[in-house]
Structure formats: C-alpha cells, structure tokens
Amino acid sequence: MKYQSKIENNTLRCEICPRMCHLKEGQVGYCNTRKNINSNIELIVFAKCASIALDPIEKKPLYHFLPASNILSFGTLGCNMGCLFCQNWNITKVKPNEYKYPLQKITPFEIVNIALQNNYKSIAFTYNDPVAFFEYALETAKLAKKSGIKTVAVSAGYINKEPLKEFLTYVDAINIDLKAFSEEFYKKYCNASLDTILDNLKYIKHNTNTHLEITTLLIEGLNDSDDILKKECSWILNNLGESTILHFSAFHPDYKLLNYPKTSLKTLLKAYNIAKSEGLKYVYSGNILNKETSTTYCPKCNKAVIERYGFKVLNFNIINSNCKYCGAKIDGVF
Ligand code: SF4
Prior knowledge:
Blueprint: E1 4-8, E2 11-14, E3 22-24, E4 34-36, E5 41-43, E6 48-49, E7 51-56, E8 70-75, H1 89-92, E9 104-105, H2 108-117, E10 122-125, H3 134-146, E11 150-155, H4 161-170, E12 173-177, H5 183-190, H6 194-207, E13 211-218, H7 226-239, E14 245-250, H8 265-278, E15 282-286, E16 296-297, E17 304-309, E18 312-316, E19 318-319, E20 322-323
Helix pairs in contact: 2-3, 3-4, 7-8
The structure holds iron/sulfur cluster.
C-alpha cells in the first residue's frame, strides 16, 4: 500500500486518513479494513464486495450529474468515521471476519466489465465510505476512466490530502456528507473533525475537475438549529459559491442514536428555506417525498427544469446544459 510509513521496528503508520493509525504486525486499523501483514499495510477487503446493485443516480444523491441514469453501485465493509447515527451500520461497523454473509469476490476489472457489457455509463463507490476501501475504489476508477465509464464517490470526506488528490484525478463526481456545521458535533457524534472536511471541500471545488454535491443528514435537536444551518449555508456560499448543490436529508433512528425522532418534513423545509434565503441556487430535500423541494429550478427564470418524484425524473427541460425556457446555464454534467 502506497500511503504508509515505518514508525519503528515493527510499527507502520497508515496515512490514508487523518487517524494515521499506528499498526503493529497483525493489527487492524480503526476502519477495520487495513491490517499490518508481514510489514505491509494491506486492504483486507480488496475485491471483496458486500453489496453490488444498479441504482438510480438520484439515490446517491446526485441531482446534477447524468440525471435519470442508472449507476452500478458497490461497497465493502468498514468505515473510518465513528458516527453514532450511522444509517448503514450493518455494513460499516462490522469486522470482515465477523460478517454473517459471504463477501462477493469481484475484482476492479470485473466491475468495469459488468458496466461495459451492460452499457452502464457510471460506477459508484458507495454504501460504505470509499476511504475504507480506497485502493479497491482507486483501481476501479483508473480502469473505468480508460474504458470511458464515469465514476462517483459518496464519502464523508475524512481523508488526507495526498490520497484525495490522487483519487480525484480519476473520479468524476463526489457527494460529500457534511455531517453538521459544528466542530463539537463532529467530535462528539462522529469522532472526527469538521476542519478537515471543510478544507477538503474547498480543495475539491477549487483544485479539481470533480463535480461536487453536498448532503447534510438533519437530526432534530442536534444539527438543525437555525443558527447552525445559517452558518453552514453561508460558509458554502462564501467558500464554494452560490451554484454549489446542497441536499438536506431525513434521519431515521439507527445504530446508537435511537432516542432521537425521525426527521420531519417541516424540518427539511425549514433548512431548505434557510439555504435558499442565504443565496444558494440549488437546494434539495431527500428521504421524504416532496416534489417541490426535489425539483431543479432555473436560477434565472425560475421554471422547473428537472422535476423529480423520489428517485424518478418526471420531466427534463435542459438542452445542452441550458434551461429550455430562457437559455440560462444550469450547473452540472448533463
Ligand atoms: S484509513 Fe483506516 S487504517 Fe488508515 S488511518 Fe484511516 S482509519 Fe486508520
């Protein structure tokens, strides 16, 4: 593995994410997917799939990248984040040797071949965070690029700059889960740091060609106050720009956060309105059906240019990246 260094005699340091785990011979990292084997850190879930499926790209969620297409999606086990509210904990929090189902052996070459043979336009690294299976995702992205297939990553963005830089040379679109606009929240509920994520968001926006969308899962009483939402939207506006695509999605009680309610539509709409009034052009709500806040409006004439219901695109009124009605540019990859 490329991102590692020797600390002392039999200890290696993994340098993929800011945890920088020190691993003695036989030890496994915080993410449960990297192990020091014979003085080399290896990804023990390489070519081992926990789930592979064909999803609508809107499910990632990506609303401004190849809308209405299906994406071949896969993930492994493990995660380098420590979110107490994880909505996928049955695959992220489990150790590969304790998983109750067999993992499917699929190499990067085979994944790209599945996409080619079935004429799928894109492949997603999703279900669990691709930082936990970086080497597997990277090799797949490299092969996909050679074959003209786009790749998408769904991640919390808790990764060191060098591996991020290399990864995004090959990845065409990314959705970053911005968990909350609060360092305290990141420490207490995710065992991670907001600063790293914000820095990586700026890097993605200004130093790469990767299409970026952001998702914040709203948990009532924890990260949904007017103040915190205004701060998040104003930071996005000032650091990433008004055309940044922002999704608010609804939480359901899961993993260790069972004593918080399901997020209501009212809360999603409040966040949506705050983001719009702060000046963001493309804002969406997700996980609860609501046509009005799943629609893309032209920033100039305000007509509906992409109407959605759930993951389904009902109407598509964009021609060559421009609004069909007034000709204004709609940001994204269409
Ligand atoms: S990727 Fe995993 S092993 Fe490497 S530093 Fe992060 S948590 Fe530790």
